[in-house]
Design brief:
Length: about 260
């Protein structure tokens, strides 16, 4: 079940072992001060899962714990059943197949769109493979192909976000972590970005774990969701169920 009317064609990823499992994780930036105080969540292959919650609840810390950017002091992070707890960011990408689209703009503004995509595979020596992957991204995002020689910094915010997502796909990731993909975007562009994420999930089976301050938009784009408050998961379930939950609606969706 999802929060979208076309859920029949929206991949559910509900079979087999979860691709990502976060099990009773405690993590934080300073010794003796955990931001996450026992988080459990999972993402199955082919799912879009959204984590919502108030500012300071630990949403970004979940991502950083998975990606090896903040130390996990207890619990486990598993990828296909393999323990990747405290993996390095480099191994998260090259070994586990996990990539991240950060909240803050990460494009190289003075470089062209094409050069930015090349940076997504800067360690790849096979130039033919790099070209192949760039062509693949252009196929997913024709707008980027049209602007391939344009300086990335001159594009709109939505186009820059598409470029960041495209660059994240260069390594054929198994899981993409998206940190507030709608941040700083106008409402119409936000809808376009969520639509692009859903389309990639539908067409190529892209698996996504996102965190969103735009709780309604994030849940409407997702199959399942989690609510995190004060470092713990307080609600979870199908996105449609969370959208209909009275407590979640009052706290995060502006409903009474």
């Amino acid at each position: 079940m999802t929060g979208r009317p076309d859920s029949a064609t929206h991949r559910t990823g509900t079979t087999g072992m979860p691709l990502l499992q976060v099990q009773d994780v405690r993590a934080g930036y300073f010794p003796g001060h955990d931001i996450l105080t026992g988080v459990d969540l999972q993402v199955r292959s082919g799912e879009i899962v959204c984590v919502i919650g108030p500012n300071g609840a630990g949403k970004s810390t979940v991502f950083k714990a998975v990606y090896g950017l903040v130390p996990v002091r207890a619990g486990q992070v598993l990828c296909d059943g393999r323990d990747i707890t405290n993996i390095s960011p480099q191994d998260a990408l090259h070994v586990a197949g996990i990539t991240i689209v950060p909240q803050s703009r990460s494009i190289f503004e003075q470089m062209t769109v094409h050069e930015n995509l090349e940076m997504g595979m800067i360690t790849e020596r096979n130039k033919a493979r790099v070209r192949q992957r760039i062509d693949y991204v252009y196929g997913l995002f024709p707008r980027l192909a049209e602007r391939s020689r344009q300086s990335a910094g001159t594009m709109s915010g939505g186009e820059q976000r598409m470029l960041e997502i495209g660059r994240a796909l260069m390594h054929e990731p198994r899981l993409v972590l998206m940190d507030e993909p709608s941040a700083g975007l106008a409402p119409i562009i936000t809808r376009q970005i969520f639509a692009a994420i859903r389309r990639l999930n539908r067409e190529i089976g892209l698996t996504v774990l996102m965190i969103e301050q735009n709780a309604r938009g994030g849940l409407e784009a997702s199959h399942r969701g989690y609510v995190i408050e004060m470092g713990r998961i307080t609600h979870h379930g199908p996105a449609a169920a969370l959208l209909a939950d009275a407590q979640v609606r009052r706290a995060f969706l502006g409903a009474r």
